[in-house]
Amino acid sequence: MSRPSDHYDSPDPALAERSAGGRATDGTGSGATDGTAGGDILQPKLGVVGWLRWFWRQLTSMRTALFLLLLLALAAVPGSLVPQRAADPNGVTQYFVDNPDLAPVLDKVQAFDVYTSVWFSSIYLLLFISLVGCVIPRAKHHFDALRAKPPRTPARLSRLAGFQQREAGPGTNGAEAIEAARAMLRRSGYRTVVFSAPGRNGGEVTSVSAERGYARETGNLVFHAALVGILITVGVGGGFGFSGQRVLVENGQTFVNTLSAFDSFNPGRFFTESSLTPYTMKLDQFSATYETKADGAFGQPLDYNAQVTTQEQGGAEQQADIKVNSPLRIGGTDVYLLGNGYAPTITVKDPTGKVVFTDSIPFLPQDASLTSVGVVKVPDGLTEQLGMIGFFYPTQAVSTTGAFYSTYPDDDYPVLTLNVYQGDLGLNGGTPTSVYSLDTDTLTQLTGGSTGTKSIELKPGDSTELPNGLGTVSFDKVSRFASLDIHHDPTQGYVLLFATLALLGLLVSLFIPRRRVWVKATERDDGTVTLEYAGLARGEDPRLVPAVAEIADRHTKLIGSQPPPESNA
Amino acid sequence: MTQTIDEYSVFFLYAAMAVYAMAFIAFALDLARRSAQVGAGNRVGVDGSVTTADERVLEKVGAGAPLSVNGSAVGGGSAVGVSTPPRRSLFSRGGDPASIDGGSGTGTTKRSLSLRLGVAFTLIGFLLEATADILRGIAAARVPWANMYEFSMTGTVLIVGVFLVVITRVDLRFLGTFITGLVLILLGISTVNYYVGVSPLPPALQSAWLVIHVFVASLGTAFFALGFALSAIQLVQYRRESIVEGAKFWRLKFMASLPDSNRLENLAYRVNIVGFVFWTFTLIAGAVWAERAWGRYWGWDTKEVWTFIIWVIYAGYIHARATRGWRGSRSAVLAIIGFAAVLFNFGIVNVFFHGLHSYSGL
What we know:
Chain A is an alpha+beta fold. Chain A has eleven helices and 24 strands.
């Protein structure tokens, strides 16, 4: 069986059963008027193998494939309505806050991990099993068909599509005319075979049976096989690859491609640390340019560029640029520029002037003008631990209410404000805490808010006293940071290869017509020859009739026959 | 300067919308005329030609001669493709010049003036809108498809363009009301709600893939739109065929002048598979671009999800066409759902859903 039994081109099961003398499809028995079987044939009992075969047939039928396809489309919808952990983890957290009752229920049915969920996976796995079960027998059948000869010419071509009849003048040799047709069809890519038999009235009937468009089925099989290829390579790539993030501040910080150097790291199931190729990467400079003219687009980013110096093991230092649409490929990994912001350099000194803290702290951008928020934690060196929540305004402005905001993302007039907190930062308990947040519940606020003391306000180079004689804090300079994603996907090239194959297979399978064409020459007693042409579409073939007419025209021209006496095409 | 060019662009766009509205009226008049003629017992062809019941013997369908209508109606717009009539002229097919005037002269086969006017207006509107689109691109110094307003403009230019190209091969002019109506609605929504001034490309969109990926997606959408219209008409036609076999009463009388449901299904299929190939390419090109810009080729972003859903629905449609019992109306319903998903993906996902494709510039 080359195709599922419910494929449109398969023989109609109802007709097949009837012709085999079985029951009529209405099942009452009264429809079986030929009397050979009647309605009393019992279905044979299905054993285990029989049931398995039945199940397999169901699974590989067109109807099931179609059902699974539509189910797959439907099952993909919820993932666009509810935030997904893989794509938008913060959205999921927020969803839990916003819908405390609904979220746990949705989580139970894996609504936040739709595309790795049991139910979504089982749909596409069943679909692919069905696909494989359908494609393998078809591939075998097609392989046989590729080596088979075109079928015998039908007796009555006049019943077929695009039928044409022409008369060739006396002196035409039927066999030669057919040979010419065969050569012509072969040049057009047809596979041909010539038949010859004596006709009813003694004259010789020669015909050529030709078929073309085997590539249609080949393309179809390539398309489906390529889909399987995509599934497998995506799975393998996910298993052996990894993705990690790292924030680098310009002028200084260096990334070393080892597990501990990542800020966050998501390995595949089969990832091993030894697969990390050692290399270093230093962010020399990060530059951003912004629109300064256009009305509605003032301040819109025009270009981000991260200049890095890299060094692979045993290699020389190399300079490279990383841009948003142009990642850096190094050491088996791809490095992408996904985010950026400001990292003010802040120094805290104790009352004696001894430096107890100095660092460039990445501040997280909050809006398009890069108003940024960051946290400074000073755990040691002072009488009590100190925490600061900072706001950074690259181009500061003051609203009518007195609030600060940023008007432009570039650092034209940078201002840093700090709210200072004193108390236990909770770092000593061993509980992991985010470097981007400060739990102020257990802390005493010293500046800003309702304390009555103004927030500390600094411009680059400024230094000021901390309240209560704790020491001084200075804002030394503004640096940029770049947020880099570092990925390794060993199979993405193969995924692309299979995707391309799928597209090519699709093109061939949809647009190359598969058709049969016959040319028949019947020699008459009077020496004239009747030429007949007809075709048969195998699958979609909207241009069959014109194609047959064109073949007839070319052929009659080739052998110099008379124009058609009449045509019922 | 940029702003001035953009103002011209907007002017041309409004002019195009006005002309599309005229085309819509002309196409609607043609359908009304078909209904009236069918009701009067005359035979109406797919091309809108009317053969009076008692003179059908004289029916004559021949090769068209170059017509004066072509020149006068379109000459002002552009010389492209009109001055050199190919084997078949765009507006006319068959008949002799005498009947063009659409007068009341009793005769053999009368062709539809309103239909040809509709096509002429559509072509003028297309040229105006294409001008608007190109001016917008010049004003922005980049391809004019980087935000919702520009997507809408380029997308509708392509829908009309594909329609105009397809009708030179197959007579689908009866879809004119649908095409011009759809384009008018889309343009109306986008000019009112989505207009934004010219702005430069953010770094994430600075890629050659913007040119390819978005353009091919729009092209696929244009074919899906045609396929949707054909499938929808196919359903109506099928209903008419199965219910009123023989009976004369059917409210949408012009349906009698359209191809039968089988032919409509085949046409819809041919259009939809072209759309499907473009969509497949869009999916792959999008994945390649996503890998460069976002560091992964597939991440189930909302827009990716919907592009995938649309692809699967149309894959289902193609399979349905090959499944016994699903040919005909059922597969047509799938094509209609598919296009509904395309519209949803464009109009709802872009605007209301949170995701990485939020470049709509709103």
